[in-house]
Amino acid sequence: MAYRAPVEDYKFIFAHVSDMVAVSATDRFAEATPDVTDAILTEAGRLTEEVIAPLRRVGDETHSVLENGVVRTPPGYPEAFKALTEGGWVAISADPDYGGMGLPISLTTAFNEMMSASDLSLGLCPLLTQGQIEALEHHASDAIKALYLPRLISGEWTGTMNLTEPQAGSDVGALKTRAVPNDDGTYAITGQKIYITWGDHDFGGNVCHLVLARLPDAAPGTKGISLFMVPKFIPDDEGNLGPANALSVVSLEEKLGIHASPTAVMQFDGATGWLVGAENKGMAAMFTMMNNARLAVGAQGVGIAEGATQQALAYAAERNQMGPIIEHADVRRMLLTMKADTFAARAIVLNCAAALDMARATGQADWQARAALLTPIAKAFGSDTGIAVAGMGVQVHGGMGFIEETGAAQFLRDARVTAIYEGTNGIQAMDLVGRKMADGGEAAARLVDEIESLAETARAALPDMAESVWQAGETLREAVEWLTAQDNMPDRFAGSVPFLQGFARVLGAHYHLRAAMAEGVDDGPRTRLARFYINRLLPEHSGLLAHATAGADDLYAFVTRELAV
Prior knowledge:
The protein is α+β, with helices and mostly antiparallel strands and 565 residues long. Helices cover 56% and strands 12% of the residues.
């Protein structure tokens, strides 16, 4: 089934459900008027439908390969990437001083979702470049910015991030890659990195690696990590590509999904690198890139959910088993769950993006706190939704879902990694109950206040849904208060994942209710979908938040050897 970009849904959310109206009212984003936004969404939809989506199955079946030291992408990929660069789509939110459009992150996020729905493998390439641009804008020297940013923004060059090593995954502080100063102000980078997304390709230009490494006198752990720009080809001051750097692709990983995205093992053998930011402050610079990527991964999950839902709906309408299977109650339950959760996840992701835009435009601490709070929720719930919805899509297809011919299984295989990379969803949950609750839960409480305020407003028009959402807000408030009262972090961490999931359930209900209020028709399709979500999915929050506040005693009641039996 051909992908159709949900442009009208983005428009509706921007107008009624996210804070995009406030974003476009700021001086920084005043040019992002509804007319401009609608035009960008429409053109992005056309590009992803007509140019990108036809490559999804091609890339899954053909894979990227390493041949004689050169990475070859599937047929059509270089041409599709060229279309992205010619349209200026690689980095539409980047600084206009270096060739970007300076548009809101909300629009980039919507575009990233469309890319993920049409072909997640290809969409990862501009996504990594976007993150690198963000890191360089905030931390690089003026000379590095002038040389790299215009070429990354145009898509002439692409970017990667190199954190993980065989012995250093989530424990980044265990990395061993070395950076030794040269006499000319550069550094010799030596070490091996793994899981490097789009570590190389055949699109032309330069591949620019941001690499975490240790200086000779660096402190142990994360306090002794610095960040370096290490390009595939060493450019001169004018950006002309010079000699090949001392780095290579050792191999490409064979993966469950995203087959067309080359995931490289990179070897650096005294490669020339340039320091980005201050010495031993690499983690701060890299987290700028990672936070950008975490929101984008949430959008990836939503994109996968959208693609899987569209395919499942089309199949259910056509497949006859005692009549069209779309008429069977359990199939309808699955399809409505897919639609309702996709909307909830999209609304959470786009509200996170709007909070980032407002923080940039205003510098206000409350918006910064809102963006920080929503980032782990957007990443984890968005990716969990992509996996769950893709799984339901396979189930709707029945036996044919297990057969690769239909393409339903690819959504599930591609989605699975989103809960792992850019910080596992367990780490996102720990971040939520740890650092994001370090304010005593104030940012969370302000959001709960908004949830309950909308529910109060909705009581006259939609009393049944309003009461359920208000009560869910109270349960969430109690869970926040319980968590912030715990000084023993294992008690918080033990329930961190169900807390994040329960928080997302309540947020999803809030955004569905907002959509129903904006529609203003009691039997309208958005209102009916909101009622389905609030009646059937929202109740899950109660069990999740009970789990979240159960503490850690039962988790540690078993000694390790008992768990191994």
